[in-house]
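Much of what follows relies on a compact textual record of a protein's fold. A record is reproduced here so that you can trace the correspondence yourselves:
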Amino acid sequence: MELRDYQWEVIGPALEGKNIIIWLPTGTGKTRAALYVAMRHLEMQSNAKVAMIVNKVHLVHQHYSKEFQPHLKDKFKIIPISGDSETKCFFANFVKDSDIVICTAQILYNALQSDSEEKHVELTDFTLLIIDECHHTQKDAIYNKLMEVYLQKKFTGHRKLPQILGLTASPGTGGASTFEKAVDHILMICANLDTWRIMSPQISIKDLEAKVKQPIKQYDLVPERDKDPFGDKLKELMTTIHQYLGEHEFNTDFGTQMYEQKVVEMEKHGAETVDRRKRTCAMHLRKYNDALFLHDTVRMKDAYDFLEEFYILEKFVKDSRDETDVFLYRLFNGNSNELLELSSNIEYENPKLKRLEEILEKHFQSSSNSRGLIFTCTRQSTTYLLQWINSNESLKGLNIKAAILTGAGSNQSKHMTQNEQKDVIQKFRKGFLNLLISTSVAEEGFDIPECNIVVRYGLMTNEISMVQARGRARAEDSCYSFLAKSGGRESQREMTNESLEDLMNQAIKYVQNIPEREYQEKIKHLQRESLTERMMKQAKEESKKKFSASDVQMDCRNCPAAVAYGSDIRVVVGTHHVNINPEFKVYYEEYTEPVDLGKKMEEWVPGGAIRCHFCKENWGMMMIYRGMTSLPILNIKNFVLKTPEGRQTCKKWKAVPFHVERFNFSSYNKGYFSDSDDE
């Protein structure tokens, strides 16, 4: 195993047993450096055990197959464990029998909390924790929850704590706009990881520069449309909906995130006050706003198709109609022909697409071996950009073989499965594909080959995303393009990100040079402060559970029909909330084939999606538990809670104002409810 000079330099303190963060650019071998530290750690210490912790499932298999297994299989026993593998059911047994465990942070955290003998481990069972993409160790992220367990042990006198090795390409500034606050952010990450020092090359800087090929950056800024009749028509229809609601003064910042937040609050208020007119109009206004987003990103035709599909689906799903439904359907249908005609007028087409066409022509004409990556903001825009590329006459002779890459999730129509992601990247690596159109999922983690051209297409993100995306353009003479409207908020944000990157670099260098005693005092103070804040936050959350579960009624968010009580709900496998009342079945209907989650779940398999029997509002999906019990999993976002103090909505189950008991399988099958713990 050969390391470059800069890798030897940064791992020096880790080889001595110190906690460090390795700060190196994307593609410079952070994982290889960590691999060497793990190997020496196991060779030099008796009873040593290493855990490589990642924040995404695909990274478990990637690190195992690309690095750890090829280099260390003859010396040590290595096991990959993730949410889609059956090994997690016997986590403790595999940890005991292995030298190196590669797993997601969630799997390890669940094992720390588990009462099961087959799953439970202690953090002190490990002697070295390697934390990938460690800049995520902040706030309520899963990495930080793990490190809180570590810090609690540290401050209660545990001596045999694991060594910590963090890896990152960009710690960021945490939203800071001043040097002092950027320093505070870097120190906070160091405190959360109990870091002795952030390590980056000082002596071997030229060796690093020889390895890292910085791409040529260009701002591809295009003017706004001279006229925008299609967008103006969408805004006219949105204004009509506001007038229907009796609103004569309202936020007209249509097509922005600010307006989206306004209609989200409008929908929430409508649900809580049983104002169906307001709630329904808010839902439709959000769809129009989404169409304006698409209009600004892809073709007018795509924005029209998106709206048309929504109204066709709404008409198909909903059997009942009220005055508001009729008004909204007639409004769209009465203007759909005009919208369709306007969307086909190429004179007013999106100018960003023409510039993207020119960029792709330049880079795919010049080399048959070109690889490209286009970053865009939503899954919808990846789909429409792919359709545009495949139908573009000017691009057809360039041998562009494109595909989309989006995040994995539970809804196959909107998410890719992990196997689909793996397949796309493998085809890209082997040359069967040469252009990926991706959401932010491709910014970090995935082992994507170096690209000749990376385009950030109309994005407004932070400096970490900018640095990570730019790191994908590592080929010789590569290009990094930022494509956006001239003078728009996106281009202003990109310029701000450049300043924030400089601020981050200055803050890290400052922290690296703080005298050791002063640095350690700062770190210890921040750690104590963080633990105190966590305890206060937990107490505050606990105080919100102020109602008896039987006193909280659950209403369908759309009808609103009263369908359940909080006392009907149980939590299964620590995550999924199900209704165990057998009478509940009269309120819902299962209307699809079993949902494909793209992975195996522990102790259960998915059934079909479920919806309200009365209004057809989606509620969740069925769970087949242990092969014999069918239980409806409910999404709390689809319900309104009627409490003794009024009606309220919740985005997540952890925010409900009552305690939810754990599901007891044996008691349920005996036909009665029990207060005892889950088996």
